[in-house]
Amino acid sequence: MSFFKCEGLTDKGLKNLGKGLKRLISLECMSLAYEKDVSFVDEYEPLTDTGMKNLSEAIQRLSSLRSVKVQFRDDAGLFSSITNESVKSLSKGLKRLNLLQSLCVDFGFCGILDESLKSFGKSLENLTCLQSFDLGHL
User: Structure pTM?
Assistant: First the structure.
């Protein structure tokens, strides 16, 4: 699922997406890419940690997932509202995915710090089936 240049996507949209995802108990593969281009937008409402928390809460219920790709890329420096808390929330969701074999995560240019990687690293310890791991471009 790509939300490339979807300027209208907000935390509310991620919350609604999360509600639908929670019901997909047989889902094995999930890919979510979001990259914002606000060069022609008058008003910009950014995604925040709240949106990421809602999405992460949905992901942790998808115990059949074998592949997850998540990209919240910010080449323009506009996602200052996606912080270390977003990474911590995602970590909580991922650590419950015992069948996960492939994980790609990209928070490029979002200002993530070392402290959030501690919780992310801890979540990886639980992913004993993981065979492929990428922290860069999807």
Answer: 0.79
